[in-house]
Amino acid sequence: MATVLICCDKFKGSATSVAVSEALGQGLIRAGHTVLTAPLADGGDGTLEAFDSLGYKREPSLATGSGGLKFETQFSLNGQTAVIEIARICGLDLVAPEGGLPSAQSARQAGTWGVGEVIKSALEKGAQRIIIGLGGSATTDAGFGMAQALGVEFFDSNGSQVAQVGNIGLVQGISLDHLDPRLEKAKFIVASDVRNPLCGVDGAAKIYGAQKGLSAEDTPGVDAAIRNFANVFEQALGLTTLAQTAGAGAAGGLGFMAMALLSAEMRSGVDMILNETGGEKMLAQADLVITGEGRIDAQTLSGKAPTGIAKRARAKGIPVLAVCGQSLLDPAISNELFEDIYSLTDFESDINECIRNPLPILEGIGFNIAKHHLS
User: Fold this and answer.
1) 153 and which of 84, 175, 296, 367 could share a cystine (Cβ 3.0–4.6 Å)?
2) Distance of CA 316 to the CA centre of its chain
3) Do residues 81 and 186 both lie within one domain?
4) Quick one: 30 and 59 in the same domain?
């Protein structure tokens, strides 16, 4: 009998990573195989769920959303390690659900204040090691809001305080006099698979601005504003070229501020979560890996969680199958990563039923995999 590692991301809007893995596993166990499961995420939404099975407890925190309104969110805590998912704080889905876009005006003003506030909540609970999952943000503020919430003050050329995200291009000076002193003793890890720099043709505004509501007319101005802001910040802290570091453009430039202000270690989201959850050790025991997410398409190949685990497994000579709600990939392309792709829509033609009730279908797919790949 084979040992199968199931390492799936969530099926967004349908089932959590844990639920997907358990359902697939039931089908494989019914066929007599040994199943190992490790939750998977890439630092975006679903990151907290990946830590739920590891003894982490949800903690409430007040936060300011990207639009400036207070609300209650959560982070996770286990001992002195906290996990923060920015998608729950300043995420695009919070302001533009069901695939909509914020207005261009709100996109220009969206800020990351809540991330700084949740960091402070974690510090108050005794956290000394803080993992921040970047992904799904509605912001392009280069971490301006987070820095403000942590006590950094920004000034224009006249010495007047700059308090609005839309004015960060006016920043000419900063003060760290009121920076939270607890930050110095904490270790920060930033989890993201985005490798873009902060500014320029591959930067945060140019590449990701449109999906956050920035208009084509706004993008050059926002890029110039965060470039100026980053230059001033780097000069004040004695840093150089950090804005061009891979990952600085993650989450609208929050990656830049995390590295600059928090001295955060930038790590691949998939790699970090696999290591934290024990998935890397389980991989060494596996004869087959099953991964997947709600929809597999071209974006899956650009560094998303299933691609991350697939590349790791294939490097070890372990075959990989993918399971999804729907696949839009050309088989010729997908076969470079996955031996086969199983879609819920191949087993249930009613897409709404796949979304409403995926678990029985997934259990059947697990049994089908055992029959065709492990017999």
Assistant:
1) 175
2) 25
3) yes
4) no
| Cβ partners under 8 Å of residue 5, min gap 6 | 36, 37, 38, 279, 282, 283, 285, 286, 288, 289, 290, 313
316 and 220 belong to one structural domain: no
Assess contact for 112 and 65: CB atoms under 8 A.
Answer: no
Structural domain count, the chain:
2
CA–centroid distance for 51 within its chain: 13
Residue with tokens 């639009």: 67
Of 269, 303, 332, which one is at a domain's C-terminal end?
Answer: 269
Q: What's the rounded Cα separation, in Å, for the pair 267 and 273?
A: 10
Q: Which residue range(s) make up the domain with 84?
A: 47-269
Angle of helix 17-30 versus helix 358-373 axis, rounded to 10: 50
Both 133 and 258 in one domain: the answer is: yes
Give CA–CA dist 154/143, Å, rounded: 12
pLDDT digits (tens, 9 = 90+) for 8-48: 988 988 998 889 999 999 999 999 999 999 988 888 888 99
Q: How many residues does the chain have?
A: 375
Measured between alpha carbons, how far is 97 from 108 in angstroms, rounded to an integer? 18
Domain termination site, one of 219, 241, 269 = 269
pLDDT of the residue at 54: 85
d(CA 178, CA 44): 30
